[in-house]
Amino acid sequence: MTSAAPQPTTIDRLLERYEALLMDAWGVLITDAGPLPGAVALVDHLVRTGHPFRILSNSASRSREESVGNLVRHGLAIAPEHVLPSIALLGPLFSEEELIGARCAVLGPAGSVEEVRRAGGVVLDPPYEEVEVAVVCDESGYPFVPTVDSVVNAVIRQVERGSSVRLVVANPDLFYPVARDRIGLTTGTVALVIGTLLRHRLGPAAPDWILLGKPERRLFDVACEALGTRNAVMVGDQLETDVLGAHNAGLDSALVATGLVRAREVEDWPGPAPTWLLSDLRV
Ligand SMILES: [Mg+2]
User: Fold this and answer.
1) 32 pLDDT tier (thresholds 50, 70, 90)
2) N or C: which end of the chain has fewer CB within 10 A?
3) Which H helix or E strand runs over 168?
4) Residue 104: is its pLDDT beyond 80?
5) What kind of fold does domain 89-211 have according to CATH?
6) If you measure from the C-alpha of residue 188 to the centroid of ligand 1, how many angstroms do you get, rounded to a whole number?
7) If you average pLDDT over residues 211-230, what whole number do you get?
8) What residue spans define the domains of the chain?
């Protein structure tokens, strides 16, 4: 299947065309160096005009309050309801899958642990014995090798005993762009490591992962439902998460050049093309 080449556009034209704006945070609004050019003014404009928007991030290392605080510290005048990190999907998941009260191993820092508790999980301390749910939220906040070993062996014991175990990765990103020419390992890769070990020992009996966050469509669906429209466009800087996720949800996307994607990656990308190309966020 070929998709049409993305067309250059501006934020103003997107705001005219779409009822709601969905935006990624990292690489679109902020980086380690602070807000990206035009980000503060764009958010001010959206808040002032009441144009519906949500910030959709694959973020599971912070509590929701910490995510909002982080963006506010960067000068973005947002309210808590404007931010939808992937970890916010844990609550609905635990309810739907009847995991309230389940014994959980949580791989992540304090904010992640807080969100698993808020979703209804009972958080265990390592070394793990009877784990019912393993939730991988981040690559930081725990001693990597002993924690991964402990989770893997606990899951193997449970499965071999015939008990069911759920594996959840609350941010499926394999890496994050540290800088234009450097990447770093993140949450999805931790899940890959655990999954590889489980498949080695358990074969087809190894549990499948439940993926929360982009490019799964659920984050987009939750945002559109909250905003009351599916006439929305996703502004992002990554093809594998923002653009593919919007496509999976049946939404248009705009790839912003202020992020870390390289022109060649767009040309070589075998997935669905972004609908639009944005050179910056200026309104
Ligand atoms: Mg990004």
Assistant:
1) confident
2) N
3) strand 166-169
4) yes
5) Rossmann fold (3.40.50)
6) 15
7) 97
8) 7-87+231-258+274-278, 89-211
89-211 shares the fold of 7-87+231-258+274-278: yes
Quick count: other Cβ atoms within 10 Å of Cβ 2?
A: 5
Measure 237 CA to ligand 1 centroid, in angstroms.
5
**pLDDT, averaged across the chain:** 93
How many whole angstroms from 103 Cα to the centroid of ligand 1? 32
Q: With contact defined as beta carbons under 8 Å apart, do 123 and 104 qualify?
A: yes
- pLDDT for 45: 97
Whole-prediction pTM value?
A: 0.90
What's at 254, amino acid-wise?
A
pLDDT tens track for 164-212: 999 999 999 998 877 778 889 999 999 999 999 999 999 999 999 999 9
Q: Predicted confidence band at 2 (pLDDT cuts at 50, 70, 90)?
A: very low
b/e 132-167 (16+ beta carbons within 10 angstroms → b): bbbbbbbbebbeeeebbbbbbbbbbebbeeeeebbb
CB under 5 Å of ion ligand 1: residues: 24, 26-27, 237
Q: How far is the CA of 39 from the centre of ligand 1 (A)?
A: 13
Instruction: Report d(CA 131, CA 145) in Å as an integer.
Output: 18
Residues 6+ away with beta carbon under 8 Å from 193? 148
Distance (Å) from CA 23 to ligand 1 centroid: 9
CA 21 to CA 254: how far, in whole Å?
Answer: 10
Average pLDDT over residues 125-147: 97
Query: Cα of 233 to ligand 1 centre, how many Å?
Result: 15
CATH superfamily of 7-87+231-258+274-278: HAD superfamily/HAD-like (3.40.50.1000)
